[in-house]
């Protein structure tokens, strides 16, 4: 009988689940993320509690048998949140452990192909977020940006924005997944924001809220200047909307200052 293993959706949670499968010699496991968890007619459901030590043991072994590129692809595929990707990644681990090395570059292998395709989609979304995220200055010296990426790319873009904006405090918040990353001039940490909390006054928070309406006048002036620059460099006679949409899909427009009327 198939056994459903439900985990918390974290990378450590997935690795703990893989450890648990081997530890208890579970036959025909089905791994489910929180969004997919429901009463299953296929087998007994079991909740896996994340244990960093067990997760580390799996990760250490995978690193020993894989190249850094293999592991980057593995992690990106996990962040894709494609339905069933956890089971694909488990099968990849199975093949790696059994062979004593990762099946790198074997695109005739359906498991490798699925992971590669998912990783490529995540990689493209990562680059789009790095290009399209726009910060707005809110109270004090904090910059804030909303986003709704197709895939969970915030863990991948943290270093880019930390390096690019090392001298300012910022928060990037994923509205779709209800979590964000915050930089305080020293380190990047994960945060959650309660937008409904009226007591919240600023954005360096773990539980407080942010209000986008709290822009300074200088931020509005900056937007005006940016829009003027964009219009002055935009040559109407050379406009190619089809090409423009290929590079800047409409779903990103609401976060671009130059697209704000």
Automatic annotation (TrEMBL):
Superkingdom, natural source: Bacteria
Domain DUF4130: 86-258
Pfam family, one: DUF4130
InterPro entries from the UniProt entry: DNA_repair_put, DUF4130
NCBIfam families to which the protein is assigned, alphabetical: SAM_7_link_chp (TIGR03915)
Descriptive protein name: Domain often clustered or fused with uracil-DNA glycosylase
Organism: Nonlabens marinus S1-08
């Amino acid at each position: 009988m198939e056994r459903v293993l439900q985990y918390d959706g974290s990378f450590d949670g997935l690795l703990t689940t893989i450890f648990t499968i081997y530890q208890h010699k579970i036959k025909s496991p089905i791994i489910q993320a929180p969004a997919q968890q429901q009463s299953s007619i296929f087998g007994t459901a079991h909740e896996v509690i994340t244990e960093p030590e067990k997760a580390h043991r799996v990760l250490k072994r995978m690193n020993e048998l894989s190249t850094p590129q293999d592991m980057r692809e593995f992690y990106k595929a996990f962040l894709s949140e494609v339905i069933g990707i956890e089971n694909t990644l488990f099968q990849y681990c199975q093949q790696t452990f059994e062979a004593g090395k990762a099946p790198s570059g074997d695109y005739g292998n359906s498991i490798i192909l699925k992971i590669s395709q998912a990783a490529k989609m995540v990689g493209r979304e990562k680059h789009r977020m790095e290009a399209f995220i726009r910060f707005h200055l809110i109270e004090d010296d904090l910059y804030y940006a909303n986003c709704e990426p197709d895939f969970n790319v915030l863990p991948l873009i943290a270093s880019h924005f930390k390096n690019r904006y090392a001298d300012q405090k910022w928060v990037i918040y994923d509205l779709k997944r209800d979590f964000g990353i915050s930089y305080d001039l020293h380190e990047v940490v994960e945060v959650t924001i309660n937008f409904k909390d009226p007591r919240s006054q600023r954005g360096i928070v773990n539980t407080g809220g942010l209000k986008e309406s709290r822009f300074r006048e200088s931020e509005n002036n900056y937007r005006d200047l940016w829009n003027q620059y964009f219009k002055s460099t935009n040559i109407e006679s050379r406009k190619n909307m089809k090409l423009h949409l290929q590079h800047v899909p409409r779903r990103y427009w609401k976060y671009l200052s130059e697209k704000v009327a």
